[in-house]
Structure formats: structure tokens, C-alpha cells
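Task: fold both queries, return C-alpha cells.
Query 1:
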Amino acid sequence: MTAIGLAVLALMVGVTAQMQTAPNAPLPDAQELKRRVMASMKASEKNLENYSCIVQDQIHELNPDGSVKKHRSSMKEQFFVNGVEIDHTLEKDGKPLTPGDAKKEQEHVDKEVKKYSDPKEADKSKTRDEKEVDLFLRALRLSNGSRVTREGRSTLVYDLSGDPAFHPKKVEERFAEALNGRIWIDEQSGMPVEVRFETTKDVKIGGGLLANLHKGFWLHLVQQREPDGVWITKSVDGSGDARAALFVHARFRFSEQLDKCHLFSVNTQQNVQPPAESPAPESEK
């Protein structure tokens, strides 16, 4: 499971909370919060379509003693078309793409924009994601709820853990069932402010033959509220120990930082071009 995938899973824990801000007001029912997740996710997708952000990714493959064995980085422009995330890679390992690679990347982005400008294709992608979210949430338990004030806003706090009454089958379910952590939810908007969790046991993919995410994987996600009320994932950090296939065994650390977010408008037609920092092709001039 990639850093981006994990980040998306963490983001999808966001819920639509009841508008109660008094310190002694009853807390929302945890199961009701889980049942409202789909509506909150859809609203978030719609709001994110107004934004384009620069994303800085860092991935460190570690030696057994924790020293860095290999480092990879990338800078991307991230935006959404009909609720589907599009990533446009601008740099790798601190260097701009070569003209040939930049051309291939632009062609790939153009293809993605054209595909998801079709509402039917976008709906297919979002439906797949929603099914994964539903599976993930059913394996989670929210407990020990409380209410605190954070940056002047009423915030709900819950412990996250796997539901012992749930019997996981798919990867998303097994991942949720294996974690312990905590989530902070902005009560007015229902969106997560911060998520922290760590796996308490191995998560096996393909019975352990394809991959194995070992106990102790951790992830930390922080969101930031923009002036117009939209919540943007500001940072995602994590570290873990995994084995892929039968031979590759890696310890890794990753981080993702979003910066320079700005508003823009996409008219989702078949000839839509994504926002880009490079000059437009000659054919468009």
C-alpha cells in the first residue's frame, strides 16, 4: 500500500459531526459518525476541485540500523477533475523532468483529464473508492470520545482501533482491524484535523506471499482549514517495515507536504488542460 493510498484511507475517516459545541453537550454516536462518512467524503471531493497544490514527496529506504540506503523525491502538481485526483509530476530527485519525460508526463496527464472529464468515468472511479472506504470503516471502532478546543474550534477526539466483533477479509479491512491510534475531528465541519495510528500486528497481502506490512507501521496526517472553509491535507508522514513478494524486505520512511495551494476553475469538457507551470504547447498558442 502506497503512502498516497494510506493517506487517502486516513482522509476518508472524516465524518459529518453534529453541530454541538458546548463542552458538556452529548457526544455524537460513534456508529452514526461512521454511517455519515460517505456524504462527508463526497462533499470534500467537490470542494477540493477548486484547488491546485504543489506536493513534495520524500521516500527513504532504510538499512537495518536506520541509516538511509536510498532516497527518492518528487514534486507534483495535484488537482481534481470531477472529484478524481490527478497528479502531474514536475520534478524527480530535485531535477526537472527531461524534455522527453516531461512530454510523456503531460500526455499522461492530458489522458487522465480527458478520461475523468467524462462524469461516467469519474463516477466509476469514485464508486470503487467508496466501496473500499465502506469496508475500511466497518472494521474500525471509535471509542473513548471527548471534546476539546483546538485553535478556537470545538474538536472531537476518539481512539481508533480494530473492531473485535468484525472479521476482516479484504486488505482494507485487515489494515483497519490491525491499527490503534487517535483521530481529532472538527465538530462544525466534520472533517479530521489530525490522525495518528500504528499497526499492532502484521498485515498480510495474498496470505503473506505477495506482501507483508509488519507490525509497527505508523502514519500521521494533519489537515489545514483554508479561509473559505475547505480542508486541505497539509502533511502525511509515516514509517514502517515491509516485505514485497518473496525476496524484497525494506524498512522505509516517507513524507508528503502540500504547499502553494491556490484556487482555480476547471471546466470539465473533453478538451480540458490541467493547470501547469510550464509554457503551453505550440498547438495551443
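Query 1 returned. Query 2:
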Amino acid sequence: MTYDDFNAFCESLPATTYVSQWGGAHVWKVGGKVFAIGGWSELDEPAFTFKTSEADYYFLQEEPGYKPAPYMAARGMKWIQQYDASKRIDEELKQLIRTSHRIVSLGLSKKKQKELELNQDQ
């Protein structure tokens, strides 16, 4: 996945906003809270960072091409970075980003979720 593909996908998710920050990283937010970051790669290849469930965090950190996210995981947050996209297909990454979007949106206040028309199917 390229950064252009990443940005187009994140933009397609409900109630998202974009900002370039932290050294030019592509930062996507829902309700003002970060759910995905494109950037921070130590290689010349794109890298993508996202929030996970606790179970996925422990599973993915053992998978090739994934690692605990720099800065965030060191602070106890369950964030993973995909740094070697050549080993993964785009659909898998999209599903992980969708899950991150949902996890972060569920952490918003009920009022904010209603205002943004998120998670109304519950």
C-alpha cells in the first residue's frame, strides 16, 4: 500500500480528519483521536501504525513485518506498526485499520459518537 492508497482509504472511513504532523507523518483521526498513522518508517518503504485489541497486539507483534509501534508501545499503548508491506496484502491492512477506527471511535463519549453518527448500530 502506498501512502496515497492509505490516505484514500482512511478518508473513506466515517467521520475522519487528516493532519500532517510529527515530522510529516500522515495522521488520521476520528473525533479528534488518532486511529492510524502513515510514516515513521526506518526503511525507505511505507510503514503504517494503528491501534489494536490486546489479543491482536500480542499476536501481530510475533508476525513477520509487524512490530510494536515506536513511541506508543513503549508507553503501554496497544499500537502495532506494519513496516514490511511486501509480506502482506492490502486487504489485511485495511481490515486492521478499520478495526483501529472502530476501537478509537468506541472510546469517544456517547454524545460525540452520536454527533458524528458513529456506532449507532448498537
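Both queries returned. Flag for query 2: The chain has one domain: 3-115.
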